[in-house]
Structure formats: C-alpha cells, structure tokens
Amino acid sequence: MTDQPLLEPLAEDWERALAVVAHPDDMEYGAASAVARWTDQGKQVAYLLVTRGEAGIASMPPDEVAPIRAEEQRASCAAVGVTELAFLDHRDGLVEASLGLRRDLAEAIRRNRPDVVLSINFRDSWGGPSWNHVDHRNVGVALLDAVRDAGNPWIFDDAGAAWGGVRFVAFLGSPNATHAVDVSGHLDRGVESLRRHALYLANLGDGSTDPDAFLRGAAEAGGRRMGVRYACAFEVLTP
C-alpha cells in the first residue's frame, strides 16, 4: 500500500476531448493509455501540438527532425485511435506563455469545442528536486488562460465563436495529482504509442530507454493510489 492519499476516478461522462501539449511524445509518457481507453469507449480525442519537437535531438538539425517527429506522432496517435492531429508550429524550446499562444489555443478550443481538455504537468517540478521543461510549464499556464479566454466572446473576438463548454483540464504527471484513470486493459497500447517515437527514443541518453518498463512502473504507482492494477494519475483543474 502507498502512504499517499487515494485518487478519485476521473469523470468520464463526456464525449469529446482536446489534448494540448508542447512536443511529440508528451502524451505518450502515460496519458496515451487513458486515451486508448477513451477511444475504445467511443469518445473523440483530438491532439494539438504546440511545436514539432524539432529541437529535441542534439545530434540532428531541426529542419530534419521536425518532419520525422511529426510523422512519428501521427503513427503514435493511430496506435490509440486518435485521427485528429494538428500542429501550431511555435518554436521548440522557446515557447512563451504569450498572448499569441493564448490566442492560438483559444481558437483551437473554439474550433474543437471539447468537453474536457488534456495536457501534461505544468508545475515547476515533477516532484522532488526535478525541474520541468520550460515549454511544458508555459504551455500549461497559457492553456489554462486560453480555456477561460475561449468562453469569453470579447477576448480574441477574431478567433471564432466563443466556447465555454470545457468542464475541466486534466494534467498528467503532476506532483499535485487529484484523480486517476484505470488503464489496466489499455497499457499495452499506450506502450506501443510511445514506441512509435523511434527516432526520439533512440537518441535519449545511451538509447536504452525501455518504454514498457517506464510506463508500467508509473502505471503501477498510479494503480496503488486508485486501488487497481494500472492507472494514470491527473491533476484536475476547473476554468
């Protein structure tokens, strides 16, 4: 048993979600297993990536990396039943929580009209002494503001009709997790989704990263806090 508090089940009485993250592979570090569960339930999940991850491989120039990582993301989406994928093409590693990003995100929310919005941890840390990537932090802050902006017809009034129907925003991997999703029957598809980022994985450290071991360990930890075998933990915030 864990000495951490148990997590509440994430509400699933919704039909459409928009996942917004900074880079290819961000959703695949855990959240994709939950997405597989939801698409199996018939829910619609669209992905929006703020960058193409072009600065993510030090040994390759960005103009070569960007199209490969975008194509790997399309294959990764297919593994978990996602057919809607779009990119904003902000610069990888230089994303700012700016008015421009807020407008882009508000426009996407208005266009997709999701019931819920998904992302990954935007807190300063992943827990302990770790330091989160600047793009993750800035995307998360801008996203929360954009969800509110999207519902206000007087903000970014040239970016589509207002949509205030987002019930909550769920961030995977937060040290402040509040809810969880049972992914016991869907973890293998989540692992396969991460494996499809082959170029990126091959260039991490010594290339020995094992998607199955990493995701299974994290899902076991989440499961202990939900009372199931495997779970993805989310911090849930409301607009």
Explain how this protein is built:
By secondary structure, the chain is α/β, with parallel strands linked by helices. It has a single domain (8-237), classed as 3-Layer(aba) Sandwich (Rossmann fold). Helix content is 36%, strand content 16%. It contains seven helices and eight strands. The chain has an eight-stranded mixed β-sheet with strand order 1-7-8-6-5-2-3-4, with helices on both faces. Helix 4 (134-150) links the parallel strand 5 and strand 6 (168-172). The model has no long low-confidence stretch (mean pLDDT 95).
Structural class estimated from helices and strands: alpha/beta
Q: Could you give the order of strands across the largest sheet?
A: 1-7-8-6-5-2-3-4
CATH superfamily placement: LmbE-like
SSE order: EEHEHEHEHEEHHHE
Strand fraction band? 15-25%
Largest sheet: 8 strands, mixed
CA-atom Rg in angstroms: 17 Å
- Helix amount: 25-40%
Number of strands: 8
The name of the CATH topology is Rossmann fold
Distance between the termini: 33 Å
- Tell me, what is the CATH class? Alpha Beta
Shape: globular
What would you say the CATH architecture is?
A: 3-Layer(aba) Sandwich
Low-confidence stretches: none
- Total helical elements: 7
Query: Domains counted in the coordinates: how many?
Result: 1
Q: Features of this protein?
A:
239 residues, 7 helices, 8 strands, globular
